[in-house]
Design goal:
Blueprint: E1 2-6, E2 18-19, E3 22-23, H1 24-38, E4 42-46, H2 55-68, E5 73-76, H3 83-90, E6 95-96, E7 99-103, E8 106-110, H4 124-137, E9 145-148, H5 169-176, E10 182-187, E11 194-198, E12 201-208, E13 231-237, E14 243-249
Helix pairs in contact: 1-2, 2-3, 4-5
Bound molecules: fe (ii) ion.
């Protein structure tokens, strides 16, 4: 399974507008060039798809995906998003969270950690119950599994970002750590590379992704020493569960 992760494009309902002093749509279209270059089995976009929670932002995302992406796309909301609009504008063509994507050599589960009115994230008891049910159903299946959500499921060591992570992270952790087929948990939100693990599962990678728009002050050094550039992440998991992953970076236009 070859998965391309892009995150936090923060699109708005304008072709030219600057978001955080950057041309959000131009940077997003540039990021999508990675799809053609890397030919992933699926693209997962880990939230903050829109900055302004607008129909027009999601329409621009839909149009860019229709033009530049032919593989399956999994979309999940961040704190800046409006999940019902993601479903309305993009839900027919793409998988939206919570949901599950089966590929020939792996499985992806995407979660919705949007918590209305809060920059922090929350999955909530209903979604956690759904996740528990799905994990029970696939417990005996050795097919490699990846889970993705917007908010980090643990503190990353950043005083501001750690104040707006996932409030029900302990519940998620207790569901995920016993699953032997789970190889990685992917997230966005932090606009930087980050890699860690839960102590009880050192083999399970917890991976934060750079933003396609703008980097935040980093906690860990970028592995390829390009912490300011827009970026993403590529994961490859073989049929035996072996995982290789790397940060991607490209130059600002
Ligand atoms: Fe963001």
């Amino acid at each position: 399974m070859r998965l391309l992760q892009l995150s936090d494009p923060h699109l708005v309902a304008s072709d030219q507008a600057l978001v955080r002093d950057r041309p959000a749509l131009a940077l997003w279209n540039q990021a999508l060039e990675q799809v053609d270059r890397l030919q992933p089995d699926a693209l997962v976009i880990t939230g903050d798809l829109a900055q302004d929670e607008s129909w027009g932002a999601y329409r621009r995302l839909r149009d860019s995906l229709a033009r530049l992406v032919s593989c399956p796309v999994a979309l999940l909301p961040g704190n800046h998003d409006r999940p019902c609009l993601i479903d309305a504008v993009l839900g027919r063509a793409h998988l939206t969270a919570p949901g599950e994507l089966m590929l020939s050599t792996g499985r992806l589960i995407i979660l919705n950690s949007h918590w209305c009115g809060h920059p922090a994230g929350r999955l909530g008891p209903r979604q956690l119950a759904w996740l528990e049910q799905r994990l029970q159903a696939i417990a005996a299946d050795p097919m490699p599994l990846v889970v993705a959500l917007h908010h980090p499921p643990m503190a990353i060591g950043h005083p501001v970002l750690d104040a707006m992570s996932l409030v029900d992270h302990a519940s998620l952790r207790s569901l995920l750590t016993p699953i032997p087929s789970l190889r990685a948990v992917l997230f966005g939100h932090i606009h930087q590379h980050w890699q860690g693990c839960w102590p009880e599962r050192p083999d399970l990678l917890l991976l934060g992704c750079p933003s396609t728009l703008k980097s935040m002050q980093h906690v860990q050094p970028c592995p390829i020493k390009r912490s300011v550039d827009p970026g993403g992440r590529l994961l490859e998991i073989n049929a035996l569960g072996g995982l290789e992953q790397r940060v991607l970076r490209w130059s600002n236009p």
